[in-house]
Specification:
This protein is α/β, with parallel strands linked by helices and 261 residues long. It contains 10 helices and 5 strands. The termini are far apart.
Length: 261
Amino acid sequence: MALNINQQNKITSIKLVCEVCSISKSTYYYKPRLSNENAMIADYLLRLTQTHKRWGFKLCYLYLRSVKGYKFNHKRVYRIYRELELNLRIKPRRRIKRDKPEALSVLSKINQTWSMDFMSDSLTDGRSIRAFNVVDDYNLEGALNIDVDLSMPARRVIQSLERLVEWRGKPNSIRCDNGPKYISQQLRDSAIELKYIQPGKATQNAYIERFNRTVRQECLDLHLFDSVEQAQNLTTQWLWVCNNERPHFALGGIPPRAKVA
């Protein structure tokens, strides 16, 4: 906006005109001083993006700050970066239409439904180990079991479940995925009813999947196991803490055993 003010004839004052136009006096007197720096920034950005074609804004900005030592504000550099239309093209992800998953059933007592799943880890010598986890969906009780060994054939799974049934009682059903261990004929012929989730629908087995994440973050990722025995001992110790001392947000901040009591 240009303000034509005749100060010699004193037709009006700058202050009055600025008030009428709703602008400050500093805006009237402002003279841009950074045009040379902006041109330099633009030149740097053009040369960087031509030399390093996969560099985006963050890499260019960090180069100017860390390598060249300039203290330009990131908003200013990004504004020039956008004006030059240097943004990298991001390939949009294909949106896959998914059916809304059914809500998980809310249980009213223990032993209505258990969930089971496997996890993988490795020993310090490179050998792979498997962890067989079982939880009670009613109170996420830590799990009822974490069984660790080099391999877990169907017969071993059945033995673990039979030991749980002896002291815990038999559940109405056990939810599991469609892994080869679970669809074996031996497990199908056992006296335990299996409830299979739909293939590729891991959210239908959300209780055990959430527990697996906790085991991974708080136990497996924090230890290096030299033997299967050491892995079994450490997971058993962690399981006791999880059931008796670790607060669970889903249970209102109390340990699982406190809810059972």
